[in-house]
Queue: 3 jobs
Job 1
Amino acid sequence: MNLSFDINTQEGDKVIVSLVSSYPYLRDIAPADIPEFELLEVSIIRDKGTKPVKMEVFGKIADILISIAEDNPDGILFYFCDIIEGIPSQRPNKSMMSHEYRNELFKLLFKRYSPNAKDHWFDIEVVLESDSPKLEMYTHFLLRDKHLPLVDFLRSEIKNNFDLISEQK
Amino acid sequence: MVFVMENTSSRIIIKNPPKKVLDFVMKMQKEKEAARKRLLEKDEHTFSIQM
């Protein structure tokens, strides 16, 4: 899968969202008893606009992600919160960095996302905490319960044998 | 490492990851920047929504 869409508003805002199949090698290294899966990496980019977008845009993004994810029984949505600036925001505090703020926004997206979904979805947030805020990492895996064993696998890989993941790309 | 399950939301926290993991994070950040540039340069998307 490799698709993208843009949302344009009368206020002049433009948000681009993409969903791309990523990290196919995970299937090869994951335990065979984990059901078939396809990791779909989500990107959300603010292209135009200087103010926070209206909530309807946020809802539209969630609705589309729902429909795409639910059409794909093997789909797992993966979101890596990048540190790139350029999101007009209403951050709870000015010191909050952009990746942490994106993390909060994505959690809100999931709250919007899950009640409308037909399937039972889980939001697995993986956080790496570091002494340097710039090196902290926030990621999300939105998945069905049948794929929860994959989280256990990834957790153990990160903890015990990270090379297996990081060197096979 | 902490693993907390609250309803349908779970949080895994890995404190003080080793350098090779941090290197991976930096690599991911660079890849996201490149992907962002590619998306912004794209003329057409699969579909477009006007609100």
Note: Chain A is about 35% helix and 30% strand.
Job 2
Amino acid sequence: MRSFPLIASDGRGMIRDRKAQSVVWGFLAMMVFIAVASGLVDVYRLYAARNWVYSVAQEAAMAGASRGRDWSSITGGGDIRLNATTAQDEAQRLIAAEMSARGISQYVIDVRVLPDSTGGSIAGFPPRPVRLGTGMGNWSSNEPAVGVYLEVPVSWVMLDMLNSQAKTVRVFASAGVAQ
Amino acid sequence: MSIQKSDRNQHQGQASVEALLVLMILGLLIFGGIELSRGVAIRQALDSGTGAAVRAFSLDPSQWSFATNVIQQSVNQNILGGGPTVSIKVYDAANTLRSSAWLSGSPFGTAFILEASAPFRADIPFLPDSTMTIRVRHWGIVERYP
């Protein structure tokens, strides 16, 4: 009768039986594959969320600039201006509607308006660095304009499992009225 | 001698089964990744096309077929190819579904939402076919005067 020991030695202190090694390697490889796939999903999710938040900010700025135009300044013989309250309200209303449609309640919004016909500048706005930001933190425009800063949290698939902090997408968009 | 050969055959069989299991999961992940990329590409094209269509509607709200074509062509030209048929709907600012005639007759300053959708089916081996609908929404304001 032949015996099948679980672990055999070659007499030089080395383990000769490697039956379980491929199972362990296979399991480890699977874990790596799954982690890579989850990471890929997270990247796509972040990419899609960022694009969406950008489009919301852009459309809100456009809505504010478009519907906030102060026509009385033109009919009165002057240059085009913005009604700051109307422009701000319109931009905020659009953002609230879009966030509500997606069921997002935890977001930060900051809408500023440069109502004068020559524009102006606002120091410290946008409050955080954003992509494509020139002169970050000091928004300026040479025409009446609406600036929208948005912060929206994005939930993770992979990083949630690792208890990582939620990622926040920060965007800034502005729209002006040409004279 | 015969015992050794039988033992080697046993190992070969075990390795084949393990390789098959690994390949099944690996295939699932690879095809899942490809299908995910395809879905993202279609969504990106749909989003971009809808943004352009909203601008077209802002300037001329009666251009329903032109706007639909813009979105369809954008989806057809997505980087991974094979664009599904898109459909569009228009809503007012209160999120009420409206018709193309409503948009066409809307006065200057009317806010509208254009929603474009396209069916997407992810073909992943070992998983049942799941058809979903990719939807994007963009806001616009009628800029045509009067």
Note: DSSP finds three helices and four strands in chain B.
Job 3
Amino acid sequence: MGVPASPPGTGVDLRFLRDDGHLSTAMGRIVAGALPPLPPTLAGALVAGVLMATGLDHLAGITLFAPVAALLLSGVASGHPHDGRFDRLVPPLLRATEYLCLLALGYGSGVGGPLVFVLLAAVALHHTDAVHRTRTGLRPPARVMRAMLGWDGRMLVLAAGGALGWLPFAYGVLTGYLAVLLVWEATTSWLAAPIAEAEAPRNESGGVDASTT
Amino acid sequence: MRVSPSAMTRIGLVLAVTAGVWFTEGGVRGAVAGSLLLGAVVLTDVLAGRVRAARRDRLDVWLALVLGRLREYAVYAGLAIGGTAAGVADAWAWAAGALIAVALRDSVAAARRADAGEPEWTPESGLPRPIEAVDPSRDLEDASPGDTSLTAELLGREAPAAHGTDGTGEPDAAPGDVGDGGTASEAPAATGGGAALFGIRTVPKGAPWPGWAEVRSEALGEGAPGSAAPPGAAEGTPGTGGADERDPAAGGAGAPRRGSGPPRALLARLAAFPQAARFAAVALTITIWDARVTFIALIAGCALAAAADLARRPDDDVGR
């Protein structure tokens, strides 16, 4: 996740949409963005999809890390600027794999349906919030995006919980953490932000001039 | 009395939660009451659009979008509870599937409108250069192309001095005189300047995908490829700057504002499957059938909308 462009523009870039966590970003540093992102993402999504199709409930212990490990192939390419022609497929692919893994793992392992639903709602709302807050000109800082753990962090937490045999507990803790962080962070950042007209012209430092009327 | 648009948004949230509570009943009475409340939710969006016309502050825009999703998920949760009570197997899994479909449709729309990011490596960044990271054995001062024959193969050209320049290797050789040595597969590669050799050619960045516009206009029966995306279709995706997908919902109730003919614009809006269309699908299916049909309809609609969004993509490539 790069530093935002000098004016905090309303544009959303694809690397921001990837929603990488610590591990994925660190792996991207290794190759300094020299790898194209689509092939490793496709490969990882394919392996994770096959694992889900065979049923994650057959996995146990350390093998629960297999889907996230496969998808972490895509983390190596996280430093790429994503300017290839089909690189727009990468964020939806990552999200689809993450959502479906959370659903398959929870549902196949007997976590309560409502809990899985609420966790998915929290993750989806986090993505909606990040995109639309960027569009209105208040991009959430990288620190906050990292605190939401990224797709790799969330999947790793759940895999670790499953490996230890505490899967419902891990779902509950992760849901609570994400929901509280989402609400708290949105509230404090909106309280601190100047509420200006969304489509007001930007001044030279990228901000919006205060209303004089 | 003045009602602010964000008050309208909050009223919509309360109404949607109430609709979700009615849907938990699982019977026909609950389905009808919930459907009517969903209609009221769409109405609040229309009203909020009217109120918002003059002023639109960023908190209001953000609240409308995020609370719009939140209320939709609340409706799905209500449907899942009602479905479980009515004996639908795996109602929560279906509800989660519908949630995922909606979120992915949003994700495809967001990715379609997104820009490319900044590269990790810049000359000032102090990180190792990408070629250094990938191939540490390479001499950094050596800027010559590595393997000329491989480059030539990848680009579909004859290697510069690999062997003699016979007729097949010349780019300007006429198609007729390749019969001596050239096989059928490499003749078009030589004459077309790499236009064949389908799998491994490279196209310059930012150039349109060759042949896409023709194939597409042929498939859709349209004239110019530029006219393919009507303005209404682009507006159906969430967040054109600030205009959210509620605007098409507002327009869907009244007359379409612009576009090539009312039925077409309406169709394009429906193809984007905005929230009003999703609520209409929910109301229709839950009243007639049960929660599982509702969720399957939502998943199918969102999948179609995402596929249409992806198929429309390469035309917007010019801005990059």
Note: Residues 162-201, 223-259, 315-320 of chain B have pLDDT under 50 and may be disordered.
